[in-house]
């Protein structure tokens, strides 16, 4: 039995936000026009009586600074929503357990990590004496990045995993993360559609990957019924770079798992860096 099954999914969420398991599920469950009363924490303010779209509409979201502020403005929204949503995606998260993907002393980066579900699944299933470095990257001062680091470190404490080092490498306005050593595995799940420039993001990650490194990614294409509708955090600048992004990926990586972008645009893929 894995630690995902023995440690309740809500344990660290309830600890951090001082809510009951029932309240945690309620706050994270999707519903039309929902306006959850999200609690404050030591790292964020309370947010209440607003839909996700209301939060986006609090101010202009045109510049990189304005877009990044959205992820701070939403408070604990992503911490609760992702905790519930990812309960249905554990099979996908277990992709990170594919033999050969992670080795002793690997340096892993979960980019646009949210609550870091892949890193959490990995550390729930590997041997407690495994030695790893894990870098979590998301918007600077976003609540989900604070909670992701807390949740992962609490899991390491409960499993007595003393050889796993977790650090945060925030994504800042005009400044992409620099990591302490080269990366062996980069996980970028449901992130590229939200970044101002996927091409620039990819170039930064590629430049810091080891020559045999693996890249697990997807790039979600959402259909918007009204062409004049504000697509919200699905950025138009990201969509414009999609073709170029995959040209660069295919030039530098070989597909090692999953369906090609042409066959299934929204699939999650494993690529291995060419050398």
Q: In words, what does this structure look like?
A:
- The protein is of the alpha/beta class and 275 residues long.
- The protein folds into two domains: 10-85, no CATH class; 88-273, Vaccinia Virus protein VP39 (Rossmann fold).
- 35% of the residues lie in helices and 15% in strands.
- The protein has helices spanning 3-6, 11-17, 21-28, 52-56, 64-73, 77-85, 90-93, 117-125, 143-158, 198-206, 236-240, 242-252, and strands at residues 107-111, 132-137, 164-168, 183-188, 209-217, 253-257, 269-273.
- It has a seven-stranded mixed β-sheet.
- Strand 4 (183-188), helix 10 and strand 5 (209-217) form a beta-alpha-beta unit.
- Helix 3 crosses helix 6.
- It is globular.
- It starts with a helix and ends with a strand.
Radius of gyration: 18 Å
Count of DSSP helices?
Answer: 12
By CATH, the superfamily of the largest domain comes out as Vaccinia Virus protein VP39
Q: How would you sum up the major sheet?
A: 7 strands, mixed
Overall shape: it is globular
Whole-number mean pLDDT: 94
Query: How many strand elements?
Result: 7
How many domains? The number is: 2
CATH class of the largest domain, named: Alpha Beta
């Amino acid at each position: 039995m894995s630690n995902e099954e023995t440690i309740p999914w809500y344990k660290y969420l309830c600890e951090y936000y001082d809510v009951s398991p029932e309240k945690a599920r309620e706050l994270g469950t999707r519903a039309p026009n929902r306006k959850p009363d999200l609690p404050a924490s030591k790292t964020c303010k309370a947010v209440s009586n607003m839909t996700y779209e209301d939060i986006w509409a609090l101010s202009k979201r045109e510049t990189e600074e304005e877009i990044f502020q959205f992820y701070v403005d939403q408070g604990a929204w992503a911490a609760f929503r992702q905790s519930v949503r990812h309960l249905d995606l554990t099979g996908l998260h277990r992709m990170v357990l594919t033999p050969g993907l992670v080795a002793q002393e690997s340096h892993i980066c979960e980019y646009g990590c949210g609550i870091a579900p892949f890193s959490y699944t990995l550390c729930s299933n590997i041997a407690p004496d495994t030695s790893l470095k894990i870098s979590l990257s998301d918007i600077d001062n976003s609540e989900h990045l604070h909670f992701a680091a807390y949740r992962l470190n609490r899991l390491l404490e409960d499993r007595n995993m003393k050889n796993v080092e977790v650090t945060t490498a925030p994504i800042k306005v005009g400044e992409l993360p620099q990591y302490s050593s080269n990366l062996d595995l980069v996980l970028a799940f449901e992130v590229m559609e939200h970044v101002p420039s996927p091409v620039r993001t990819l170039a930064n990650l590629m430049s810091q990957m080891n020559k045999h490194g693996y890249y697990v990614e997807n790039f979600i294409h959402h259909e918007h019924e009204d062409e004049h509708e504000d697509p919200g955090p699905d950025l138009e600048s990201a969509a414009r770079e999609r073709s170029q992004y995959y040209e660069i990926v295919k030039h530098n990586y070989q597909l090692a798992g999953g369906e090609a972008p042409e066959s299934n645009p929204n699939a999650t893929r494993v690529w291995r860096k060419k050398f």
